[in-house]
Specification:
With 509 residues, this protein is α+β, with helices and mostly antiparallel strands. The protein folds into two domains: 5-188, no CATH class; 271-449, no CATH class. The protein is built from 22 helices and 20 strands. It has a 20-stranded antiparallel β-sheet, sandwiched between helices. Helix 5 (62-74) runs antiparallel to helix 6 (76-83) and helix 16 packs across helix 17 (357-369). It is globular. Mean pLDDT is 80; it is low at 1-22 and 444-459.
Length: 509
């Protein structure tokens, strides 16, 4: 079997519950046994998911049928679970919880899995003990567990924990979880409250506390000026929601002031350069913009005593330069756009970065002296290494010979492109208004956009892993600021995003 018992059980039960409300999360025995120092906790709100996609819809997909057929050949118990998960004894009227318990003294020693409530302990025990995993079942004080090939199932009368184990002693983890004292659960964390009361389909919580208790992490962070207390109490709260034509992922960064300030120093609060005149609207695959605060980055590295190390890593000393030169030369506003088809039918891209031309000129001279670029006059340079252009061309699915990438310095901006029309647009100050991206749209995306056609090969693999095909997606939007981030995937097809992806993904698997 490619999928272990606990994965089959969790995935199937997720889509089978018939209730309409998950109830008060604080009443769940399962979450009351998730320790407050868990590294991550995910709340899966089964009832509202089932209002968006039914178990019957899932059973009709080829992917589900394939898993079922495989189970019937290799594991009759797993096949039974897939056929009727109600026979598992799991409480199908409450939410599920995925979490990770880490040993702070050994970050490789961890348990990952799903916590569920049990409605019928006898039926659950019968189900587990009838499986091949039951060999060597251990009766502990207050719970029972079985393990095989890195997988485990542990249960008491009212809840169970199913998952995978890393190194270390599994009983140390299970004793901690099943014998958790009152008031020591994740519910006691004020940072978790927003996750516990969220209405997202999936809500998750990431904590730095396990790392903060690791001696090596504390020792290493001391060189960056962080105390053990600075490392504790840093959290990321997030949620995933499936809506009409849209999947939304939200992140909230709840960080200690010293950590938040350090992370914000290398980034600007907004982009100062309007790149829209150079972004073509036709066959647009993606646009990403970034605002690096080079002076802020330099100050951060200075405070962390990392100037020398960074200069060495970048090989600046060999070129007779230093990091201070780069800070003066680069302003930090950047843009990168991709087209599946440029002006000559070949894949096209354009990179732009705002610079201080006078301070940047020594870099151009160094690159020219080193044979990296060759001047064509009027601030235009050809890249002499054909590898860059050929790899981009290949990864974007281009046919025939790739164009030579050209570097242009104009109006305080460094441009790089291999498309003839974009090169001419750079020289003339921008694309014609009918050829460029709409300014209003550009302002609204601010940080990122990805269209649904012409996915580069490198992106297709990631999308395929989620069961998403480029033909299904209209756009991808992403934005981030100091304390929050948001990602949206917009579907071309009407209907709930989750249901569409399950049906489309199932047909393609």
């Amino acid at each position: 079997m490619k999928r272990s018992l606990f994965i089959l059980l969790a995935a199937t039960v997720l889509f089978l519950a018939s209730c309409k409300t998950g109830g008060d999360i604080k009443m769940d025995a399962a979450i009351q046994h998730i320790p407050s120092d868990a590294s991550q906790v995910t709340v899966i709100r089964v009832p509202q998911l089932l209002e968006k996609v039914s178990f019957e819809d899932l059973k009709k997909t080829p992917a589900y049928q394939q898993v079922w057929a495989e189970a019937e050949r290799q594991d009759p118990l797993a096949a039974k679970i897939l056929k009727d998960p109600r026979e598992t004894g799991v409480n199908l009227e409450q939410n599920f919880y995925v979490f990770t318990d880490v040993n702070p003294n050994n970050l490789n020693d961890m348990l990952n899995g799903m916590m569920v409530n049990i409605s019928d302990p006898a039926k659950f025990a019968e189900m587990v003990k009838a499986s091949p995993m039951s060999i060597g079942a251990k009766e502990m004080d207050g719970y029972t567990y079985v393990k095989k090939d890195g997988n485990f199932v542990a249960w008491a009368d009212d809840f169970a924990f199913m998952g995978q184990m890393g190194g270390g002693n599994i009983e140390d983890h299970l004793n901690k979880i099943f014998k958790l004292s009152d008031g020591a659960s994740v519910l006691s964390s004020g940072a978790f409250e927003a996750v516990g009361t969220s209405t997202n389909d999936f809500s998750f919580w990431l904590s730095s506390d396990a790392i903060a208790n690791n001696e090596q992490a504390v020792f290493g962070s001391s060189f960056l000026g962080y105390s053990p207390d600075d490392l504790k109490g840093n959290y990321i709260n997030g949620g995933v929601n499936f809506e009409e034509k849209k999947m939304t992922v939200n992140l909230d960064f709840l960080l200690k002031k010293i950590i938040a300030n350090d992370l914000s120093m290398p980034f600007k609060s907004k982009i100062g350069k309007d790149f829209s005149p150079y972004i073509p609207k036709d066959d647009l695959v993606s646009v990403f913009t970034f605002g690096f605060d080079m002076a802020g980055l330099y100050q951060l590295l200075k405070e962390k005593n990392a100037i020398g190390l960074m200069s060495k890593q970048m090989g600046l000393n060999q070129m007779g330069m230093n990091l201070d030169d780069i800070v003066k030369a680069i302003d930090g506003d950047m843009m990168f756009a991709l087209q599946s088809k440029g002006s000559d039918g070949k894949p096209a891209g354009i990179f732009a970065m705002t610079i201080n031309e006078s301070a940047f000129s020594p870099y151009l001279k160094s690159m020219e002296d080193a044979g990296v670029i060759a001047s064509k006059g009027n601030g235009v340079y050809a890249m002499t290494d054909a590898k860059m252009g050929s790899e981009f061309h290949k990864n974007m699915g281009g046919q025939g010979e790739p164009n030579v990438p050209m570097l242009v310095v104009k109006d305080g901006t460094l441009f790089l492109t291999s498309d003839p029309a974009l090169l001419e647009a750079i020289k003339s100050g921008g694309l014609a208004r009918g050829k460029r991206i709409d300014k209003g749209m550009y302002n609204s995306i601010s940080s990122g956009f990805m269209g649904g056609t012409g996915f580069p090969d490198l992106m297709k693999g990631m999308a395929d892993g989620m069961g998403i095909k480029e033909a299904d997606i209209e756009s991808f939007n992403f934005s981030i600021n100091d304390d929050a981030a948001k990602l949206e995937l917009i579907s071309k097809e009407s209907g709930n995003f989750l249901k569409n992806i399950i049906e489309k993904g199932g047909k393609s698997m």
